[in-house]
Amino acid sequence: MGHLKLKDMAKVTQAQITQWKKQWGGVYSIEVPLDDNAKEKAVGYFKKPTLDTIKASSKYIESDPIKAGEVVFNNCWLGGDAEIKDNDEVKMSAMQQVSSLFKVRQATLKKL
């Protein structure tokens, strides 16, 4: 499959991003280079994974970690360039970034 030119890819408007922010509370863009020269990039827009999404993906962590990443990717995808979803290398790169959006903070415990 040949690489799509940026002008041929779906564009997300600022109005759409604003709508997503209202709906999901935060929107993250992930840019992935389409080749080693990084002249062209595909952009995908994602919401932060919820605990339910992490739970759904966790059953695959040991047996199929790529499937676990796909569960998070698919549940967080809002829109963007088709290349993000259609090109395996680009998708894998985006999957790694999406999975890092869920932050586990360091909690402290005190006996009172």
Task: Provide the descriptors you would attach to this structure in a database record.
112 residues; alpha+beta; 3-stranded antiparallel sheet; 43% helix; globular; disordered N terminus
Describe the structure.
It is a single chain. The protein is of the alpha+beta class and 112 residues long. 43% of the residues lie in helices and 14% in strands. It has helices at residues 14-24, 51-58, 65-76, 82-86, 88-99; strands at 28-33, 41-46, 77-80. The chain has a 3-stranded antiparallel β-sheet. The radius of gyration is 16 Å and the shape is globular. The termini are far apart. 22% of the residues are buried. Mean pLDDT is 88; it is low at 1-9.
Low-confidence stretches: 1-9
Order of helices and strands: HEEHHEHH
Please give the share of residues in helix.
Answer: 40-55%
- The beta-strand count equals 3
Radius of gyration: 16 Å
Task: Walk me through the topology.
Elements: H1 14-24, E1 28-33, E2 41-46, H2 51-58, H3 65-76, E3 77-80, H4 82-86, H5 88-99
Antiparallel strand pairs: 1-2, 2-3
Helix pairs in contact: 2-3, 3-5
